[in-house]
Write a structure and sequence with these properties.
Number of domains: 1
Strand order of the largest sheet: 1-2-3-4-5-6-7-8
Radius of gyration: 17 Å
Number of strands: 8
CATH architecture: Alpha-Beta Barrel
Number of helices: 11
Shape: globular
CATH topology: TIM Barrel
Distance between the termini: 9 Å
Length: about 250
């Protein structure tokens, strides 16, 4: 089965917010991605609203529901509400995304850079996973390649893990991806043995994606934003989406 592509549109919001107003339009960019064949849309709203805002989440929820495609909301489930940001769990309650991806990021992080400590976070994660599943969401947990205690991730009731691929992408640039790729393979294999399906994301690009999905078994979905939007500056958004779909075998 080909790996599905969910496009993270955060970077469109970053560009919009840098100038004010509503250009470029996040919703229109998402439409272009879906028209070009993307299987879903991902957003990662943060409490400081540095990019995606709650109103974007609501609008994209309506768009993806109308198109019959996956909407994936990523975020820190432990972060409280702030201002008009209602909190991750509340956003999911209001929009009922197909997938909720839990990520342990904080305001000080420029971007997500590590997965959960499943032993330490188990007690807090388990009830939140149950609450999200009561909304009809599939739940995925952000996990480091080589993460210990994956059995704890499974016991939370989560459906999937998303392997954090940043270290693999960095090693690929240095022509030294073997060890990092091996950790991803091992983690995906352990996850599947525990009944967890596997997603992947972070710094995946046209350059490194083919090797990753060829070697790492049973990756159901990749979420790609930063590299894809950067590449689209040169080749166009629709053409870039089609390039990724070719790599994924779609």
């Amino acid at each position: 089965m080909p790996t599905l592509l969910s496009v993270n549109v955060n970077k469109i919001a970053v560009l919009r917010n840098s100038r004010g107003g509503n250009a470029p339009e996040v919703l229109e960019a998402a439409r272009v991605c879906l028209d070009a064949g993307a299987h879903g849309i991902t957003v990662h709203p943060r409490p400081d609203q540095r990019h995606i805002r709650p109103e974007d989440v609501y609008a994209l929820s309506e768009l993806t529901a109308a198109r019959g495609v996956e909407f994936n909301i990523e975020g820190n489930p432990f972060a409280p509400a702030r201002g008009n940001y209602p909190g991750f769990i509340e956003l999911c309650r209001r929009t009922r995304p197909a997938q909720a991806t839990l990520v342990p990021d904080g305001d000080a992080q420029i971007t997500s850079d590590h997965g959960f400590d499943f032993a330490a976070d188990f007690g807090r994660l388990q009830p939140l996973v149950a609450e999200l599943k009561s909304f009809g969401c599939r739940v995925s947990l952000f996990a480091d390649a080589g993460a210990p205690n994956l059995e704890k991730a499974a016991k939370t009731g989560a459906d999937r893990i998303e392997i954090y691929t940043g270290p693999y992408a960095e090693a690929f640039v240095e022509n030294n991806a073997g060890e990092a790729l091996s950790r991803c393979i091992e983690t995906a294999t352990r996850a599947r043995a525990l009944g967890l399906a596997v997603n992947a994301g972070h710094d995946l690009s046209q350059a490194n994606l083919g090797l990753f999905v060829h070697e790492v078994p049973n990756v159901l979905e990749v979420s790609i934003g930063h590299a894809l939007i950067g590449e689209a500056l040169y080749d166009g958004l629709a053409a870039t989406i089609r390039n990724y779909l070719k790599i994924l075998g779609n």
